[in-house]
Design a protein that fits this description.
CATH architecture of the largest domain in chain A: Roll
Number of strands of chain A: 5
Order of helices and strands of chain B: EHHHHEEEEHHHHHE
Structural class of chain A: alpha+beta
Strand content of chain B: 5-15%
Oligomer: heterodimer
Shape of chain B: globular
Largest sheet of chain A: 5 strands, mixed
Number of helices of chain A: 5
Number of helices of chain B: 9
Strand order of the largest sheet of chain B: 1-6
Number of strands of chain B: 6
Distance between the termini of chain B: 13 Å
Distance between the termini of chain A: 42 Å
Shape of chain A: globular
Chain lengths: ~150, ~210
């Protein structure tokens, strides 16, 4: 075990964890931030997506020893009142069905729009290609991203 | 002449051979008269052994064409994956710098060290493909085509021969032997590959005939 100070949603947090602990489990088990979900554990589904210095990353394969001073943002920290343009668009289009993958979908969509506020449909498809949805809400996801883009 | 020097045009090679041969003969005559030193000693300093170079590249080539190397040097703009070199799942794109695009960057899944486990993405802090303006394609190249590309300053990432030689020590090259899981290793050990790479370049970086 080792002591780490990490920046999560704008606050410094100290955790004692084994160096190879995926940051997903630090968030969920140590910090009780349960919005980020566990899906495949091998970066194949995108359910566990968080932001690391703005980049969408798969928290299930990112060890805490690799975090350093990078700033982590989870779904809980995306906006103070749940009013990020992507979150509002998700509500507007009633995107989720079972909802399990949606935190990852929203985090990926938010990272996309932060880097490219006016993506084409092709760019949206490419950017969201690593986020799977077993309920196949892809059409609504695409529509919601285009709606959110109008606010960016 | 089956062998051509890979990094020089034929006319330059022929001119160089004439100059070098003339120089060596002249030098050896003087040295022979004054010191009796065998010209073979001088030849050792100028050794550009095309046969040894090509023989070394025959060891290097299967390593470069192995999935651990070739998967990130594909014909297209999506990397390959696995021992069967299938198209990378999720279709991440090369991007201008070879580091992916937007939310599908290499770093999205390939952390600096990564985590242990079957099928987890290998970690490396410098994980990337060649950039879009110099794709350095390995896939589908013959040994000759690949050797010629490797020594071409305009196609090899602007590496001179020293930089090309040193590239064998690059951390991402070395990572090809350290990806873990049940991934097949390249056909040579890393050390054997490095020695073959050096032998290919030190002997003149000649390209095979095919």
């Amino acid at each position: 075990m080792a002591l780490y100070t990490i920046n999560v949603n704008g606050a410094a947090k100290q955790v004692d964890a084994a160096p190879d602990t995926p940051i997903l489990w630090v968030l969920r088990d140590h910090l009780r931030l349960l919005g980020t979900k566990y899906g495949c554990g091998v970066a194949h589904c995108g359910v566990c997506t968080i932001h690391l210095d703005g980049d969408a990353v798969r928290s299930c394969v990112y060890p805490i020893s690799d975090i350093g001073t990078k700033k982590i943002v989870t779904i809980e920290g995306l906006s103070e009142k749940g009013d990020h343009p992507v979150q509002k668009a998700w509500l507007e289009w009633d995107v989720p069905q079972c909802g399990y993958c949606q935190a990852g979908q929203i985090m990926t969509a938010a990272s996309l729009l932060a880097q490219n506020p006016q993506p084409t449909d092709e760019e949206i498809r490419r950017a969201m290609n690593g986020n799977l949805c077993r309920c196949a809400t892809y059409t609504r996801i695409n529509k919601a991203i285009r709606t959110a883009a109008k606010e960016m | 002449m089956k062998l051509l020097n890979a990094h020089l045009s034929p006319s330059i090679v022929i001119s160089s051979i004439i100059v070098a041969t003339t120089g060596l003969l002249g030098m050896s005559t003087i040295l022979d008269r004054k010191t009796g030193v065998d010209e073979m000693v001088l030849l050792a300093k100028e050794d550009k052994d095309s046969a040894a170079s090509v023989a070394a590249f025959e060891k290097v080539y299967p390593v470069l064409m192995h999935p651990r190397c070739m998967n990130c040097h594909p014909k297209g703009d999506v990397p390959l994956q696995g021992d069967d070199s299938h198209i990378h799942s999720m279709l991440p794109q090369r991007g201008p710098e070879g580091k992916g695009v937007l939310t599908m960057k290499c770093v999205t899944c390939h952390a600096p060290t990564g985590v242990e486990g079957a099928r987890t993405p290998p970690g490396n802090p410098e994980w990337h493909m060649p950039p879009a303006d110099m794709k350095m394609v390995f896939e589908g190249k013959t040994a000759r085509e690949l050797a010629l590309q490797l020594v071409d300053f305009e196609k090899n990432g602007h590496k001179d021969m020293k930089a090309l030689r040193d590239h064998a020590g690059d951390d991402l090259v070395k990572a090809g032997w350290e990806m873990g899981g049940d991934r097949e290793l390249p056909p040579l050990s890393y050390e054997a590959f490095k020695q073959a790479w050096y032998a290919w370049i030190d002997n003149g970086a000649y390209a095979p005939s095919k």
